[in-house]
Structures are given as structure tokens and as C-alpha cells.
Amino acid sequence: MIVHKGEILFRQGDPGENLYHIRSGIFKVTRLHENGNIVLFNILYPGEIVPHHSLITPKECHGTATALMMGEVEVISAHTWYQELEDNPDKALAIAKMLQEKLRFMQQRIDHLTIGSPGERLELLKQWMYSYSGNNVLTDLLTQEEIGQLIGVRRETVNRLLRQG
User: Fold this and answer.
1) In which domain, by residue range, is 3 found?
2) What is the dihedral of CA 137, 143, 146, 151, to 10 degrees?
3) CA 8 to CA 19: how far, in whole Å?
4) Where is the Cyclic nucleotide-binding domain (predicted)?
């Protein structure tokens, strides 16, 4: 399936009837909290099968995944996925490797949050996003608020950093 920029792949609270293999494109995952705050908490990239928390057992979607650019996604029936997992125990090792890769990505993101100045963190985020999005301008993919959430600064600081760069 082709997903265009701005389209929703899955929504927070969806029952998790499908999993999604991201073939191309990048997606942001946001969560709406009871107080009305929307927080960007994950970036999905090619090769991932998501939602991560449903790779072994089903669970409703924790957030909403929105395409940041056009991408291709394979829709996988959750029922079929879990049946294959039950029928083929070796598949569990492949899932463990996928989760390990995501953990390593999250470790890298944490490292980026703890490195030097906000300007350095912004530059690392740009480099990482460019590696998956081609030459797309970061601010064409994410708002200043979302960039700030990813690098641990306020939107105003992102605005200042972008003006300086």
C-alpha cells in the first residue's frame, strides 16, 4: 500500500488487527494524552514491522503513526502473523533481532540527546533524518515543536537554532 505525506497508518487506540512492514518512507508516532498534550515519541523507518509492542502478542495501538513523506507499507494480518509465529518458533528469533535493532536505535537517540549543545543535537537529528528521507528539509517533515521534543529543547530554541544555521 502507498501512504502519502500526512496520511495516517494507524491511530492511537486502534485494536491492532494488522501489523505493518515499512518498505519505504518515514513515519512519526504521536500520543495524545488525557490533558490534551500531543507528544512525538517515535520515528519509524524502512525495514521495521510495527507496532513493536504487538510483535509477539496483540495490543491496541499506543499512538498514531503519520507519514512524513510518501512511503510503501505492507499490511500484515495480525491473525496470520501470530499463527505463523505459533507454527514457526524460529520466527521468534527474527522478531527478537528486530526489537534489538529498535533498542539500538533508541540508544542512539538517547546518546544524541545527551551530546553537547542543542545545536549539536539538532545537527545529529538532521543527519539521521536525511539518511532515511533523502534531501528533504527537516522542517518540511517535522514541526519546530516536534523537533524540540526529539532533541530536548523548547520550540523557541529550535527556532533560534534554525535561524542561526
Assistant:
1) 1-88
2) 50
3) 14
4) 1-77
In a domain, 68, yes or no: yes
| End-to-end C-alpha distance for the chain, whole angstroms | 37
In a domain, 17, yes or no: yes
- Asked if residue 65 belongs to a domain, the reply is yes
| Per-residue model confidence as pLDDT tens digits over 95-137 | 999 999 999 988 988 888 888 899 999 999 999 999 888 888 9
In a domain, 155, yes or no: no
Per-residue model confidence as pLDDT tens digits over 19-47: 999 999 999 999 999 999 999 989 999 99
Task: With a cut of 80, say whether residue 165 has pLDDT above it.
Answer: no
Residues 6+ apart with CB under 8 A from 156: none
Is the CB of residue 27 less than 8 Å from the CB of residue 43?
yes
User: What is the pLDDT, as a whole number, of residue 17?
Assistant: 95
Give the CA angle between residues 56, 58, 62 to the nearest 5°.
110
CATH number at residue 47: 2.60.120.10
